[in-house]
Amino acid sequence: MAVDPDHVLRSAATLLTRKSTATMDEVARAAGISRATLHRHFAGRDALVRALEALGIAECEAALDAARLDEGPVGDAVRRLVAEIEPQAGLLAFLYTENQLFEGEEQNAGWARIDERIADLFRRGQETGEFRIDLTPAWLTEALYGLLASAAWAVAEGRVAPREFTYMIVELLLGGARRPTDTPTA
Question: Is pLDDT of 103 > 60?
Answer without folding.
Answer: yes
